Structure formats: structure tokens, C-alpha cells
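Saturday, quiet lab. Running sequence design on the C-alpha cells for the scaffold JK sent over.
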């Protein structure tokens, strides 16, 4: 069954079986495959999963969810769960679609993400890693070598994916809606000439009201300017009611993660 697997992918399965036995699980579950993958291919995981944190963090989360059982002897040939079987089938499909003869650990990662309701997909999605994102990275990376792994392009500039991913995890805490940027009315502290945003102090004698006092805002992620005089690219954005994201950052980075997480 594993003839088409690369040596690395075989070792993922080997390690997954070991992990399952250590948890005393009667089956090799998707989370054991994920642990196997993290253990076997640190190069892939450090490139593709910058936001995932340490393998220890993932292991801890798996332990918290798992009923403690006696370890199984590693000589027992544990079967794959049905979910894990589907992960392997998806991995084979992914290799075919990418016209790769062999099934590698990157295809197993895609397989894990495609088995959406399984625990491994939850662990990956909850760390901000979507199927679409990994598709993009893997297909680019396979064509162009290592560099494409680490860079995402926003407004024609390359951004460090590691940086972006960690920001996205924060931004995902909020709901975002598309809005046209409009200048905000503000107050200005008369004594200092400094801006104040809370209009409830409008009648305070220390402040004066300034209509459209805040004419521009910056994307919380890429610092693209939102204003009313730079054309549609600068006017349309997404807001959580407090911060703003430019349309490109939201539609290219945040929205795909939400779709994958559904
Ligand atoms: Zn942006």
C-alpha cells in the first residue's frame, strides 16, 4: 500500500504508529499522523507552519483531549482509523493533481487538512493554517524551490509569512465587514493640540470638535493607507469597528482561512 510513498512519508507513518502506541490508542488517528509529520519533517513544518508553535504545544493539546490509556507495545501493528485512511487517500489524490509520482509528506499535510472534521485539521486550522494556503505554498514551493515558502505578496511587496501568520492569529479574533473608509470626527485637546477619539467628551471645555479630524487610517497588517482621495484601492477596506485591514490583506489572507475553517 505504501509503494508510492517517499522514504520521508513512510517514516511519517512509522512515527504515527509509534505515537498511537504511546497514547495507547487502538487506531492510528489523524492527530498521530500530524505528530509523525512534525517529527519527521521539521524542514517542511518550519516553512509551512510558522504559526503552529512547538510540537510540544500540539502534543499537550492532544493529551488534554485523549483519555489516558496503557501504552500499547510498539510491536502491535495498529490499524489506521477511517479518518486516517481517508487522509492517505487524499494525499494520493493531491500528489496526482500536482503531477507528482511519489507521495511525500507535503501531500500528507494536505490530506490532513482535507479531512476537515478530524482533530488534526482542527489543530492546524486553529493555528491559522488553511488548506488553500498550504495548497498555494506547496504548489509554489515544488516549482520554484525553497524561497516561495516564506514570502507572501501584498500590494506588490513580499512579506515574511512568519510575521503575517502570527498577526493573522490575532486578527482572527474579530469579525470583519467590508466598508468604505470615511474620515472620523475627532476631538482635539485644546491645551496640547492632541487628538482624542471618544466623542462623549464633546462638551468638555478642554476639547474642541473637529469634523473629519482623522482623514486616514492604516491597514493593521501591511500599513497600506486607507483614505478618500487615493482611488478605490485606498477607499475599500474591512473593519472590526475599531481597526482596519486593506481589502487585499483581508481577501488574500484572512478570508481564505475563514473559508477553510468552516
Ligand atoms: Zn493590508
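Result came back. Writing it out in full:
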Amino acid at each position: 500500500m505504501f509503494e508510492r510513498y517517499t522514504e520521508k512519508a513512510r517514516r511519517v507513518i512509522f512515527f504515527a504508529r509509534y505515537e498511537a502506541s504511546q497514547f495507547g490508542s487502538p487506531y492510528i488517528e489523524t492527530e498521530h499522523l500530524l505528530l509523525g509529520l512534525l517529527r519527521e519533517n521539521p524542514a517542511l513544518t518550519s516553512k509551512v507552519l510558522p504559526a503552529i508553535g512547538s510540537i510540544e504545544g500540539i502534543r499537550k493539546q492532544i493529551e488534554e483531549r485523549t483519555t489516558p490509556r496503557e501504552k500499547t507495545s510498539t510491536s502491535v501493528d495498529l490499524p489506521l482509523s477511517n479518518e486516517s485512511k481517508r487522509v492517505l487517500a487524499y494525499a494520493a489524490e493531491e500528489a496526482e493533481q500536482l503531477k507528482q509520482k511519489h507521495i511525500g509528506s507535503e501531500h500528507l499535510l494536505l490530506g490532513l487538512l482535507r479531512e476537515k472534521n478530524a482533530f488534526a485539521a482542527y489543530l492546524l486550522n486553529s493555528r491559522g493554517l488553511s488548506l488553500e494556503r498550504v495548497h498555494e505554498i506547496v504548489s509554489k514551493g515544488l516549482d520554484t524551490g525553497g524561497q516561495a515558502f516564506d514570502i507572501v505578496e501584498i500590494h506588490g511587496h513580499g512579506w515574511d509569512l512568519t510575521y503575517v501568520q502570527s498577526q493573522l492569529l490575532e486578527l482572527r479574533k474579530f469579525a470583519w465587514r467590508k466598508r468604505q473608509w470615511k474620515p472620523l470626527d475627532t476631538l482635539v485637546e485644546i491645551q496640547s493640540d492632541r487628538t482624542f477619539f471618544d466623542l462623549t467628551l464633546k462638551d468638555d471645555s478642554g476639547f474642541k470638535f473637529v469634523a473629519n479630524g482623522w482623514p486616514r487610517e492604516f491597514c493593521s497588517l501591511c500599513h497600506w493607507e486607507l483614505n478618500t482621495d487615493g482611488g478605490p484601492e485606498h477607499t475599500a477596506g474591512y473593519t472590526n469597528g475599531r481597526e482596519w485591514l486593506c481589502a487585499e490583506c483581508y481577501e488574500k489572507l484572512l478570508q481564505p482561512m475563514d473559508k477553510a475553517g468552516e
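Notes for JK: Confidence is low (pLDDT under 50) at residues 142-149. The chain has two domains: 7-148, 166-260. Ask whether to fix the surface positions before the next round.
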